[in-house]
Write a structure and sequence with these properties.
By secondary structure, this protein is of the alpha+beta class. About 30% of the residues lie in helices and about 35% in strands. It is built from three helices and five strands; from the N terminus they run H-E-E-E-H-H-E-E. Strands 1-2-3-4-5 form a five-stranded mixed beta sheet. Strand 2 and strand 3 form a beta hairpin.
Length: about 100
């Protein structure tokens, strides 16, 4: 946990960080055994459809469920909370050992 806490602190030093054309990681923190990321999606003021939210959630979970598995195997829960550019909550993607079939 100490090593992970250091990783989180190092990550905070480079935030905000652009992930792709519409996504920016704006915060990261630990809450117990949960590693939480806060991301902002540039929606250009438009509503996200449920299909788009589900697609992005599924994609994010797939990214967390691939090697290396050290964080998942250690019992960590990885969660990304997505907000729009006005800080309105959109959805959450969560991965853990069970969800990833480990």
């Amino acid at each position: 946990k100490r090593e992970l806490k250091k990783t989180v602190e190092n990550m905070k030093a480079v935030l905000p960080r652009r992930i792709d054309a519409i996504t920016t990681m704006i915060d990261s923190r630990m809450e117990g055994s949960k590693w939480i990321f806060i991301a902002q999606i540039d929606t250009s003021g438009r509503q996200m459809t449920e299909y788009a939210k589900t697609s992005m959630r599924d994609y994010t979970v797939k990214q967390y469920c691939r090697p290396p598995y050290e964080y998942l195997d250690a019992g960590l829960i990885i969660e990304t909370k997505y907000y729009d550019e006005k800080r309105k909550y959109l959805f959450t993607a969560t991965a853990n050992k069970r969800i990833c079939g480990r």
